[in-house]
Amino acid sequence: MSMLTLERLVPGQEAEVVGLRSGTQARQSLRRRLLDLGLTPGTPVKLVRQAPLGDPLAVALRGYVLSIRCADAAMVEVKVLDKVGAKVGEKVEEKTA
Prior knowledge:
By secondary structure, the chain is α+β, with helices and mostly antiparallel strands. It is 16% helix and 32% strand. A six-stranded antiparallel beta sheet has the order 1-6-2-3-4-5. β4 (57-61) and β5 form a beta hairpin.
């Protein structure tokens, strides 16, 4: 399964945060800020909408909607979830009555 970044999602698509990329000192402070905003590993997120020109994105997580620039969203690595909340490619047990 390949890793995507948050800015690659399409509106309505759900994913789970896997981690945040690190980089230069300036990026480290942004990384810390994103973690403080709740983009921590294991957090489910949903891309709610994208601005007409593509930037910024509206992402729902932890009961609120975060507006984030595409350049900043590129730091957030995610795994796409299917409709029942399982990771794509993961077996899902069907409930039988």
